[in-house]
């Protein structure tokens, strides 16, 4: 016969078990929610966005001849982040088939099926609409229009038309990554002059020496996916020659600002950083000719440092 104490103990044990189940369920729910949020954030390629934003603020400082208002800077950065996130998410949606093939991209959310393709498409479009509305409401129509152009160029021209068809894909498609300097300048001035176009040219010519070393490193990945990146269809020597040529063009464009609004701080930085970049580019070419280890990622990593420091010099030059 069951005693009252036994019944109470049994009820207490049952209650405790239910409580544990509820806590476990809540923890599982929070973990699932965090994983979902992380997957959608990954669609926007945050590390690429960081590099784009590094060029935006210094350009705004240059346009203002000093520090622009904090509100304008934050609004422009928010709009630029949404625009870049939109372009990247739509790129992930379109490239989900080849992302599954390439080891470098196999962990992206759509390749791992952690986000449904339809959801990714809607997410990218919503971010684009939000970016346009925010830039139009807080900056001006020109900046908002440039944001739309950047998204359209990256998704339609680069991702859909060029990437799988020509080895010049990253050359012309890379123009989308140059747009933040135009957006930042337009946000401050409401117009465009030759100065932001000079910065545009720096990033335009920087893109191939930045990206081709990465494509050299992951040549087999691109070949397996059927993407004709230059290192897939040309010899390492041919690729490195073009890297050197684009590097010289990039440094030449960076020196144009010396004849304009920039001063001594920027001039010294542009010369020293440019010389260091050219050295790395020529060393890469020498390694391809010698037949030894090419080590292309040395230039890839240095190119990121170069761009960040060059644009830091753009800002510091105006603030000191």
From TrEMBL:
Give UniProt keywords alphabetically: Cell membrane, Heme biosynthesis, Membrane, Transferase, Transmembrane, Transmembrane helix
Reported EC number(s) for this entry are: 2.5.1.141
The highest taxon in the source lineage is: Bacteria
* Gene Ontology BP, a term: heme O biosynthetic process
Q: Which residues cross the membrane?
A: 48-66, 72-94, 115-135, 141-162, 169-188, 194-212, 224-249, 255-278, 299-316
Q: Which residue stretches, if any, does this entry annotate as coiled coil?
A: none
Give compartment(s).
Cell membrane
The cross-references to InterPro entries, in alphabetical order and at most eight, read: Protohaem_IX_farnesylTrfase, UbiA_prenyltransferase, UbiA_prenylTrfase_CS, UbiA_sf
- Its pathway? Porphyrin-containing compound metabolism; heme O biosynthesis; heme O from protoheme: step 1/1
Mind telling me which CDD domains this protein's record contains?
PT_UbiA_Cox10
**Catalysed transformations (reactions):** heme b + (2E,6E)-farnesyl diphosphate + H2O = Fe(II)-heme o + diphosphate
Q: Choose one Gene Ontology CC annotation of this protein and give it.
A: plasma membrane
Q: Additional comments on file?
A: Carbon 2 of the heme B porphyrin ring is defined according to the Fischer nomenclature.
Family of this protein:
Belongs to the UbiA prenyltransferase family. Protoheme IX farnesyltransferase subfamily.
Role according to the record: Converts heme B (protoheme IX) to heme O by substitution of the vinyl group on carbon 2 of heme B porphyrin ring with a hydroxyethyl farnesyl side group.
**What PANTHER family does this protein's entry cite?**
4-HYDROXYBENZOATE SOLANESYLTRANSFERASE, PROTOHEME IX FARNESYLTRANSFERASE, MITOCHONDRIAL
Q: What is this protein called?
A: Protoheme IX farnesyltransferase
What's the source species for this entry?
A: uncultured Frankineae bacterium
């Amino acid at each position: 016969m069951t005693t009252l104490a036994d019944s109470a103990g049994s009820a207490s044990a049952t209650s405790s078990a239910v409580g544990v189940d509820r806590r476990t369920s809540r923890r599982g729910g929070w973990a699932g929610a965090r994983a979902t949020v992380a997957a959608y954030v990954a669609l926007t390629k945050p590390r690429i966005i960081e590099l784009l934003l590094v060029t935006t603020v210094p350009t705004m400082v240059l346009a203002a001849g000093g520090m622009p208002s904090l509100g304008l800077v934050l609004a422009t950065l928010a709009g630029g982040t949404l625009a870049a996130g939109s372009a990247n998410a739509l790129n992930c949606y379109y490239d989900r088939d080849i992302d599954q093939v390439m080891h470098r991209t196999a962990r992206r959310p759509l390749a791992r099926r952690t986000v449904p393709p339809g959801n990714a498409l809607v997410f990218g479009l919503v971010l684009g609409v939000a970016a346009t509305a925010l830039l139009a409401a807080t900056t001006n129509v020109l900046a908002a229009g440039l944001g739309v152009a950047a998204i359209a160029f990256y998704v339609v021209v680069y991702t859909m038309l060029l990437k799988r068809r020509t080895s010049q894909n990253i050359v012309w498609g890379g123009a989308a990554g140059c747009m933040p300097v135009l957006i930042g300048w337009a946000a401050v001035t409401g117009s465009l002059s030759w100065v932001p176009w000079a910065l545009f040219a720096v990033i335009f010519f920087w893109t191939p020496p930045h990206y081709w070393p990465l494509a050299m490193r992951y040549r087999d990945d691109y070949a397996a996916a059927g993407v004709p990146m230059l290192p897939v269809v040309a010899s390492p020597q041919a690729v490195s020659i073009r890297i050197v040529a684009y590097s010289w063009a990039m440094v030449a464009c960076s020196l144009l600002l010396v004849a304009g609004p920039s001063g001594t701080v920027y001039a010294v930085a542009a010369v020293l950083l440019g010389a260091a970049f050219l050295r790395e580019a020529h060393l890469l070419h020498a390694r391809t000719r010698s037949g030894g280890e090419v080590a292309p990622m040395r230039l890839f990593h240095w190119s990121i440092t170069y761009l960040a420091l060059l644009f830091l010099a753009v800002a510091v030059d105006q603030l000191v």
